[in-house]
Design brief:
Largest sheet: 8 strands, antiparallel, barrel
Subcellular location: Secreted, Extracellular space, Apoplast
Keywords: Apoplast, Secreted, Signal
CATH superfamily: Allene oxide cyclase-like
Pfam family, one: Dirigent
InterPro entries: Allene_oxi_cyc_Dirigent, Dirigent
Oligomer: single chain
Strand content: 35-45%
Structural class: mainly beta
Radius of gyration: 26 Å
Main location: secreted
Helix content: 10-25%
CATH architecture: Beta Barrel
């Protein structure tokens, strides 16, 4: 009888352990098929003002390589910049501001004639239809290819652009190679749900 009770207690103990083990195994949850909404495409045109000079720059060098002459050049190889660039409707400095581009970029080419940056930026909209939304870019940006447009990749977004993908065609509207100041036209093609 004693062994029968012990066997019953042991069997209940094992049953509790199995149930507990099964409930703990759901840590990762369940995966359900999603019926995606219809994908949308949004095309945006705006201007980014990257100002390195003056009393109130929108981008500042936060590091540079000592071996590459980085301190002697506005955009020397190996220089790392933090940016908080205004986004505007038009190219003029008094054009209506619709957002900001915040992030970082590094000068990634030794030859200034092939000047290229690698950038990460969150392009956030603070006015208009897309207020509170942003697109994120992370890409190589071959700045010296001024003759035509260059392209950077959209890797994500927030708000109305959550899970975005796509590309931005960039055209230099104006650049001062002495100061590094630039106004860039951004034509974004954003795929999102």
């Amino acid at each position: 009888m004693k062994s029968g009770i012990m066997s019953l207690i042991f069997a209940l103990y094992l049953a509790v352990m199995v149930v507990t083990a099964n409930s703990d195994s759901n840590y990762y949850g369940t995966t359900k098929p999603v019926h995606p909404k219809e994908e949308k495409v949004t095309r945006l045109r705006f201007y980014l003002h990257d100002i390195l000079s003056g009393r109130n720059p929108s981008a500042v060098r936060i590091a540079h390589a000592n071996l590459t002459g980085g301190a002697d050049s506005a955009v020397g190889f190996g220089s790392l910049f933090a940016m908080d660039d205004p986004l505007t409707v038009g190219p003029g400095k008094d054009s209506k501001e619709i957002g900001n581009g915040r992030g970082m970029y590094v000068s990634a080419s030794k030859d200034i004639r092939k000047f290229t940056i690698v950038m990460y930026a969150d392009l956030a909209f603070t006015a208009g239809k897309f207020n509170g939304s942003s697109i994120s870019v992370f890409s190589r940006n071959p700045v010296a290819e001024e003759a035509g447009e260059r392209e950077i990749g959209i890797v994500g977004g927030r708000g109305k652009f959550r899970m975005a993908r796509g590309f931005v065609k960039i055209k230099t509207h104006q650049i001062d190679m002495k100061t590094g100041d630039a106004v860039l036209r951004y034509d974004a093609t954003v795929y999102h749900y």
